[in-house]
Design a protein that fits this description.
The chain is 67% helix and 0% strand. It has 9 helices and no strands. 16% of the residues are buried.
Length: 222
């Protein structure tokens, strides 16, 4: 009969122990911040903006309100951080797309579809409620660092998608605002209507046609 306590090699078999990796302070801080912001998004989605209270955020995140204030200052600070996250998610969607060498219409289609995938999704619907209910940010100063950085990133994305366009700055800015305003407007209407897939496809198609036409004009194409 075999002796399982003695495999015949003079050694005892032991299960390997898992070495616990201690997280850094920065990692713990980032994880806590992410939990707080996710709690806000989930609460607004389920309860709405006005019922997303400090107590609700603490309950959902498992973080005391004092700790949340330490990370963000106050509730408006958390909301602002969620808005920044929303913009960064949109940037990630757009920057991950292949662009080089593709025909203009293909790039326009990819740009609109990726932007809509985010702006028409549940995360942006939560951030839209924040935008509706928070005081308007002070964009008046051209030296505002957040405004300057947002515009720099957005212009960089636009230029990478449509490098051949030679529109003057005013026209380019107008076209950019038109694109984002149309998409966010359609996202806002999701709250009040339930368009069919065919209706939404047609609406996005109008935007694609307009962008293609104006960008061709800027590039000198017929």
């Amino acid at each position: 009969m075999e002796n399982w306590d003695d495999p015949g090699m003079g050694e005892t078999l032991n299960a390997p122990t898992r070495r616990r990796t201690r997280r850094s302070h920065a990692e713990r801080k980032a994880e806590t911040s992410a939990r707080i912001k996710q709690a806000v998004v989930e609460s607004i989605a389920e309860l709405g903006f006005h019922r997303t209270t400090a107590a609700e955020i603490s309950k959902r995140s498992g973080v005391s309100w004092g700790a949340a204030q330490h990370h963000f200052g106050d509730k408006d600070g958390i909301f602002a951080a969620v808005l920044v996250d929303s913009f960064n998610l949109l940037v990630d969607e757009l920057e991950g797309l292949p662009r080089e060498g593709a025909p203009l219409r293909e790039r326009v289609d990819a740009f609109v579809e990726a932007a809509w995938a985010h702006l028409g999704g549940p995360h942006y619907r939560c951030t839209f409620e924040i935008l509706l209910n928070m005081p308007a940010p002070d964009w008046g100063s051209a030296g505002d660092p957040l405004r300057a950085e947002t515009l720099r990133i957005w212009n960089g994305i636009w230029t990478r998608f449509f490098p051949e366009s030679d529109l003057d700055e005013r026209t380019r800015t107008t076209l950019q605002y038109y694109a984002i305003s149309t998409l966010t407007g359609l996202a806002a209407m999701e709250k009040f209507e339930s368009p069919t897939a065919e209706q939404r496809k047609s609406q996005l198609g109008f935007l694609k046609d307009t962008l293609t036409r104006e960008l061709k004009r800027g590039s000198g194409e017929g």
